[in-house]
Design brief:
Chain lengths: 903, 183
């Protein structure tokens, strides 16, 4: 069985049993025939008698020589004996073949054993049928089902076959073989599955099997359907084939983000906006749902709507529109509660999905820590991207692989000698200083602009630029700072990979700093508004009071209520925050699209068409085509998502806008990439940084959670707008619900759960669990390293033994040729070999304990030692070229290639 | 007989839709008068035809890939089953083990079951392309191969065998995502 690389244990067992049964078949058949005759004869005489009682039949059967049970056990025994005999000669034959044509093709080695195997299989069939027919013959007369052992045997076989069917896909076999194997296995299972049940159970069993089969088929169809439903698959594949997997990974990330946003959108839309629109009070019924009188004239102007003022501000898209009524509509839907819970679950769901995808990403790569050990091998074996179908990309890839090879070689050579370390250090410090200056400057600029915009917002008649200053400045900073950073980073002279990480980290810091300065400025604004709230409240009360109590009205007729548009109201800070985020998102989207249009598309057009009449080659020279900036795009996407998370609590419509944005940018960017970008000069893999991006997303999620949590926990909601108006804090809505809608004992339980005495131990417990798991993984890694070392040491010893022996053989042959007096040296050498060998054995007592055959003759040792190497599977079609039988080739070749290590 | 009826229950992992697509693509490679379903399932397409597929055209291992998957005795043509085999190994759903097994066979240029120095240097030449400027010098090549053997040749026998190869590959984060061909 030396030809199967991926044999699982069950298959191995099945195959050996198959081979064995073939061997003992001829004799068995004759015996069976006789037994059959005997049975029929016996039936003739005492068949009816036995037919009445099963026990009797069995008892009698045991006496007869050809009874199924006896036969079975006998065959088993013989199988075992013969199996061993058969297996070893077969293996030896194979090995012999391998040696004879050492360099024969894989296929050449693979085919013959397959044939060997096919034959026995068929024979087993016949045999099995015979076997069954005999047993059936006897049992049919006896009205008795199969004997226990037969049943268990068939059961085992069926289970094996089923396992084979299930794991068929994971076998590296050619299709024809898979097909034959599968058909055989299926036929077998189908035939014998029914036999397993007894009597009435038989039908039930068959039925259950049928249903299971149907279920499997349904699951498969459903899986196919699901994969067909994945959107943009072909688009992404197209991009993949043009640009390699790295650019496509951005689009896959975009699609993933779209899915997440779709879920968030469904959550918010289905649980907040639709109930409010359907069941809440209609527009114009209360002040918070009406445009104030002063704004009414302009409320429908496009320029006002574009700024999310006017009618849009007083719509269900923003926080302020919602009423603080506890229940709405005939469903008695608790909208404030739902609003709060959805706000929380948006974060909960995002957190969960990000962490889950991170975990599934890490599961693919088994151990991150060991990656550094295989830099060269990874470059060698996994650097080619098989998706590339474009010759231009392929050329780029060749070039990038070559440079990476050369780079790593140079790295390896020069890792020791650091030249002028002081200059490098100085430059790095300088670069970091410059970049920190840039960051601080951009932060200050944003703070300044936001402050100024608050002054502008108080003024009337502000120009378009003054109104949109914040967004413009933020977008410009986002556009120009990254290239500036890149220029500064050139000073540092880092390795490109490390440089990329630094660059990403700096852009991240820039975005984050900008976002947080923006937030701080916004928070100042909020505090200002909150401090004004009391006066506004008084004014409102005063107006209403005056209105109802004013003289000059007929006292007998009650006055109609004040029109909601006339009621003075406070500046709803939540809506203001929501509007800021909304505007930021939209302007971000526009800037992205305009950058793509100008920077990519127009540039591509210019380069493409002006190239005919230009003095130098535009395509190859200076402007050239744009490359797709993966990291910048991914970071932009991540920050956009951060803004969505932050803003969605105060502007429920924001997620809807974001879904639209992602949808359009999917199509737009796909088009832009295919039409006007060229593949990267340095093609790097994105999957390596996939989790890096996910980690950034997680960080952004956490950072965007903070301000929202802060506002919910510590700021009082506005008094006249939003679902929580009139409450002291937003989370009071939970308490309210627990008190009013739940039975009292539940309230007590919640109070108990919220007790710090319970929460602190729980947190401690979690920390302990983390610590424990961490230490476990560390110790496992250590064990891994130790095992590796052990293997290496073992192989060293074994190899030195081999090479010594091999050279002895070389000498031996030389001796016979030359006939000189090298007897003594040779003797010495062999002696050395044996001593070495014995030492190798004494070094590995545990292996010896595992395999008692290890301590046999010197010739077998190397084979048996290789057998017991724990990690590497037993020598199959590759691996060790079987040294003891072919010492010539392997040993001499090896000693030529590499000097034997001296112990 | 529709291709579906022939192919249903096949143990390969392609979806029915992609199976149909594969069959269509395969038929396009056949001469026009042999495009019936029956014939296409029997026919063998010579390598030149397969290599002209746009998905394989830019691949430096295209000859090797065809060679590994071919079942014909002269190993110069692919039947539809071989073609499906190829696609299923390079599909998303193939397990990493299967993928790495075939990758090993693709990289094993002389088909002797191990990656020795000649295989590795041929592999490097494939990866660095045909151009003179991208080729590595002899000393660089030696250095590179030494480093690779240092890393992956766990048992220090001077060659990389399948299990060592799979050991390395299983730790690679990109392999499964890049060892893919989509029609």
């Amino acid at each position: 069985m030396a030809h199967k690389p991926e044999l699982g244990a069950p298959q191995m067992a099945a195959r050996t049993s198959v081979a064995c049964s073939q061997l003992q078949f001829p004799g068995d058949r004759s015996r069976r025939k006789t037994s059959k005759k005997q049975t029929s004869k016996a039936e003739g005489t005492s068949g009816r008698h036995r037919a009445q009682s099963g026990q009797k039949e069995e008892a009698g059967g045991n006496l007869r020589p050809g009874s199924p049970r006896r036969k079975q056990s006998e065959r088993r025994r013989r199988q075992e004996e013969l199996g061993e005999q058969k297996r070893s000669p077969a293996g030896r034959n194979l090995e012999g073949r391998r040696k004879r044509d050492g360099k024969a093709s894989f296929r050449g080695q693979r085919v013959p054993p397959e044939k060997e195997k096919e034959v026995p299989k068929e024979e087993t069939w016949k045999q099995l049928k015979k076997h069954r027919s005999t047993s059936l013959a006897s049992s049919a007369s006896g009205g008795e089902s199969l004997s226990e052992e037969e049943l268990t045997w068939i059961l085992e076989q069926v289970e094996e076959k089923k396992k084979l069917i299930a794991t068929m896909r994971n076998k590296p076999w050619p299709m024809a073989k898979k097909l034959t194997e599968l058909r055989e296995a299926q036929a077998f299972v189908e035939k014998y599955e029914g036999a397993l049940g007894k009597g009435k159970g038989k039908r039930l069993y068959a039925y259950r099997m049928l249903m299971a089969k149907k279920w499997v088929k349904f699951k498969r169809d459903f899986g196919n359907f699901k994969t067909q439903c994945i959107p943009w698959e072909m688009k992404i594949k197209d991009i993949e084939s043009h640009f390699g997997s790295s650019v496509a990974s951005y689009f896959i990330f975009l699609r993933w983000m779209y899915g997440v946003n779709l879920v968030l959108f469904g959550l918010i839309f289905g649980l907040i906006i639709i109930p409010e629109v359907l069941m809440g009070m209609p527009y114009g019924s209360i002040p918070r749902k009406t445009v104030p009188r002063a704004e009414e004239e302009k409320a429908m102007d496009f320029s006002v709507l574009w700024d999310f003022e006017g009618y849009i501000k007083y719509s269900a898209l923003f926080y302020g529109y919602y009423n603080n009524q506890r229940t709405i509509g005939w469903l008695r839907y608790r909208l404030p509660m739902a609003y709060f819970m959805v706000g929380v679950s948006v974060f909960g769901y995002s957190l969960m999905i990000v962490i889950r995808s991170m975990a599934s990403n890490t599961q693919g790569s088994t151990s991150e820590g060991e990656n550094d050990n295989f830099t060269f091998s990874f470059k060698m074996f996994t650097s080619w991207d098989y998706l590339i179908g474009n010759s231009e990309t392929a050329d780029n890839k060749y070039a990038s692989i070559t440079t990476s090879f050369k780079e790593s070689i140079v790295d390896e050579q020069e890792s020791n000698k650091e030249e002028n370390i002081h200059l490098t250090r100085f430059l790095r410090v300088l670069a970091n200083f410059l970049i920190i200056c840039c960051l601080c400057g951009s932060g200050y600029l944003i703070y300044f602009v936001v402050k100024r915009s608050q002054e502008f917002s108080k003024m009337q008649n502000v120009s378009w630029y003054e109104r949109n200053e914040v967004e413009i400045v933020m977008s410009l900073l986002g556009m120009f700072c990254p290239p500036l950073f890149e220029t500064i980073a050139a000073l540092e002279n880092y390795h490109p990979r490390i440089g990329l990480k630094w660059q990403l980290g700096r852009i991240f810091a820039l975005f984050l700093g900008n976002l947080y300065t923006f937030l701080l400025a916004l928070m100042d604004d909020v505090h200002l508004k909150l401090s004004n709230e009391d006066t506004v409240k008084n004014i409102t009360h005063w107006t209403l009071f005056n209105y109802y109590n004013s003289s000059g009205w007929n006292e007998s007729v009650p006055r109609p209520p004040l029109h909601p548009a006339d009621v003075p109201r406070g500046s709803c800070w939540e809506t203001a925050v929501g509007i800021e985020f909304m505007r930021l998102t939209v302007s971000d989207m526009l800037v992205t699209y305009i950058t793509i249009l100008l920077g990519d598309f127009l540039r591509a057009c210019f380069v493409r068409f002006m190239n005919y009449c230009w003095c130098w080659d535009l395509e190859a020279g200076f402007p050239s085509y744009a490359e797709f900036d993966i990291s910048g795009n991914v970071l932009g996407l991540i920050f956009n998502q951060g803004m969505i998370w932050m803003g969605s609590f105060y502007a429920p419509g924001l997620v809807g806008v974001n879904v639209l944005r992602l949808l359009t940018s999917m199509y737009f960017q796909c088009w832009a990439v295919m039409s006007s970008n060229v593949p990267h000069e340095r093609v790097f893999k994105a999957s390596r940084s996939n989790n890096f991006y996910m980690g950034l997303l997680l960080l952004v999620l956490f950072l965007s959670l903070l301000p929202v949590a802060y506002t919910i926990m510590s700021l009082p909601p506005s008094f006249d707008c939003g679902p929580f108006s009139g409450k002291n804090r937003m989370y009071d809505v939970i308490q309210e619900t627990i008190e009013n809608d739940f039975p009292t004992f539940l309230g007590k339980i919640f109070a108990f759960l919220a007790n710090p005495g319970l929460i602190i131990p729980a947190i401690l417990l979690m920390f302990l669990a983390i610590y424990y798991l961490n230490s476990v993984s560390k110790s496992l890694a250590r064990a891994n390293a130790q095992l590796r070392k052990k293997i290496q040491a073992l192989r060293e010893v074994e190899k030195s033994h081999k090479s010594v022996k091999g050279s002895a053989m070389v000498k031996d042959s030389g001796y016979t040729l030359k006939g000189s007096s090298k007897n003594a040296t040779q003797f010495q050498l062999t002696k050395e070999g044996t001593t070495l060998h014995s030492s190798s054995q004494s070094q590995t007592p545990d292996q010896k304990a595992q395999g008692p055959g290890t301590s046999s003759s010197a010739g077998r040792t190397s084979l048996s030692t290789t057998k017991h190497i724990p990690v590497s599977p037993p020598p199959r079609d590759s691996g060790q070229p079987l040294p003891q039988t072919h010492p010539w080739r392997s040993a001499s070749g090896k000693s030529a290639r590499r000097p034997p290590p001296d112990n | 007989m529709a291709p579906g009826t022939v192919l249903n229950g096949c143990p390969h992992i392609l979806l029915p839709s992609s199976r149909g697509r594969a069959h269509k693509r395969f038929c396009e490679l056949l001469p026009p008068n042999h495009r019936s379903v029956e014939e296409s399932l029997q026919a063998r397409v010579p390598f030149q035809q397969i290599l002209s597929l746009p998905e394989l055209k830019a691949n430096p291992f295209k000859e090797r890939i065809c060679g590994v998957f071919s079942t014909s005795p002269t190993r110069d043509s692919l039947s539809f089953e071989d073609f499906l085999d190829l696609l299923s190994v390079f599909s998303d759903t193939a397990t990493p083990d299967v993928k790495s097994h075939y990758a090993f066979r693709i990289f094993d240029f002389d088909d002797d079951g191990t990656l020795n120095r000649e295989d590795l240097s041929q592999l490097v030449n494939c990866l660095t392309g045909e151009g003179e400027d991208t080729r590595l010098s002899a000393s660089e090549m030696k250095q590179l191969i030494d480093n690779i053997l240092e890393e992956s040749d766990i048992d220090r026998d001077g060659t990389i065998n399948l299990s060592e190869f799979q050991h390395v590959i299983s730790r690679s984060p990109d392999f499964v995502s890049s060892f893919k061909i989509v029609l």
